[in-house]
Write a structure and sequence with these properties.
heterodimer, A: alpha/beta, five-stranded parallel sheet, B: 9 helices, about 0% strand
């Protein structure tokens, strides 16, 4: 499904990584490891087409993602290290708007139900700016509950979360993998997610 | 989708009303300063009115340009929009239209009242409002290109004015020209048609250029 060959990332004069090769099939998880500054975020941004690789190519179902463009975006969900929520909107508005922009509009009760699962009830009508860092992260992660995409690209999804939220996210990811989804993620936490196959990619 | 973007930006503007009001009050104050500074010479006021109102409108629309993409860029929502399965051009068009509704429409509505300060006649007031109605969307559309190009740069606010103000010149000439033509007893239709043509041209070209600029700036 997802096939990456000879990928190289150059920042300024320096090559962050090169000759990165991997492929990902339904139900598989790819965990990208590496110290700070090793290019994990750059790799994920390349995978979702936000950044252009210096060398190599990324193919989705056999086609280069550059040529697929908007068709590819129908199949992926990317959560970056920025939360992607508007401070002045409340959790329900944020979730509904980001889902609609991802081409998958949801009604208010669906949004309410997924925020409930993320443990945000009672705070769903407060502007997100008054929530804590971890709660904002939960608002962002609620998108995963309503997304219908195959490939999830998650950059440090567990940052700022408490232990119960980490377990919650673990459950969501396992359910997605079980249904034949794919996950590419970076994390510094020790977490064991059940998947058909867990691949590891070490950048240094 | 397109409507969602507009709805979202209008909702955000409602929550942050001070941004909208700043632009409007800036416009009102700049226009009102001129009669005070120049003195009550009616003929002079009448002849300078179109230029003053139009220049103030350019500057007011300029004020809020920087915010068009930068807040979305900083909180990561712009990234999410760029990964949307909808064409980026449509999203950009939605954002430019929302920007116009928030900053352009209030100027159009208030302009006849401000025109009174310059003793403009009724037909000139009407043409002033119509020329702004046709011209201000062009300002938002062209401004979007500048805002996208300077995204994430230090001193983007100054840079955006250097980039965009020269491109506003044709709109200024024909917008102010329309009102002058009516005051001089000539018809304004030629000027207004040209403004309409600018609007159509920028509706087609500006979103495309803005989308390309956004892709470069966010890489």
């Amino acid at each position: 499904m997802l096939k990456v060959s000879n990928l190289e990332c150059v920042r300024g004069e320096r090559s962050l990584f090169k000759d990165v090769n991997f492929s990902l099939e339904a139900g598989e998880l790819l965990q990208v490891n590496g110290p700070n500054g090793s290019g994990k975020t750059s790799l994920l941004r390349m995978l979702c087409g936000l950044a252009r690789p210096a060398h190599g190519e990324i193919r989705w179902l056999g086609d280069n993602i550059r040529s697929l463009d908007e068709d590819y975006y129908n199949s992926i969900t990317y959560l970056g290290h920025l939360n992607g929520v508007k401070d002045n909107l409340n959790a329900i508005e944020n979730l509904r708007i980001s889902s609609a922009l991802a081409g998958n509009g949801i009604d208010e009760s669906t949004a309410y139900a997924s925020l409930q699962k993320m443990g945000l009830i009672g705070r769903e009508i407060l502007p997100v700016k008054v929530l804590s860092q971890g709660q904002r992260r939960r608002v962002t992660l609620a998108r995963l509950l309503v997304s219908d995409t195959v490939l999830w690209i998650l950059d440090e999804p567990l940052v700022a979360l408490d232990t119960s939220a980490v377990l919650l996210v673990k459950g969501i990811l396992e359910q997605h993998l079980e249904k034949g989804g794919m996950v590419v993620m970076t994390t510094h936490q020790d977490i064991n997610i059940a998947a058909i196959e867990t691949k590891r990619l070490q950048l240094n | 989708m397109f409507l969602w973007v507009i709805q979202r930006d209008l909702l955000l503007a409602m929550r942050q009303r001070s941004d909208v009001l700043t632009t409007l009050f800036f416009f009102i104050i700049v226009v009102s300063l001129f009669p005070l500074g120049v003195g009550p010479e009616i003929n002079m006021l009448r002849s300078m009115a179109p230029g003053v109102v139009w220049v103030a409108a350019l500057l007011a629309s300029m004020l809020s340009l920087e915010r068009m993409f930068s807040s979305d860029y900083l909180d990561g929502t712009l990234e999410q929009m760029m990964l949307s399965p909808q064409p980026l051009i449509l999203l950009v068009l939605g954002k430019a239209l929302a920007h116009w509704m928030v900053t352009g429409v209030p100027l159009v509505l208030i302009s006849p009242i401000l025109g009174f300060q310059f003793d403009l006649q009724t037909d000139a007031l009407l043409v002033l409002a119509v020329s702004l109605l046709l011209g201000t969307p062009v300002l938002s559309l062209i401004g979007a290109i500048g805002a996208a190009l300077t995204l994430g740069l230090r001193g983007g606010g100054v840079l955006v004015s250097l980039l965009v103000l020269p491109l506003y010149i044709p709109v200024l000439i024909f917008g102010a020209g329309a009102v002058e033509a009516v005051s001089a007893g000539l018809g304004a239709s030629a000027h207004l048609s040209l403004l309409g043509a600018f609007l159509l041209l920028s509706l087609v070209l500006a979103p495309w250029a803005t989308a390309a600029a956004l892709r470069i700036s966010t890489e």
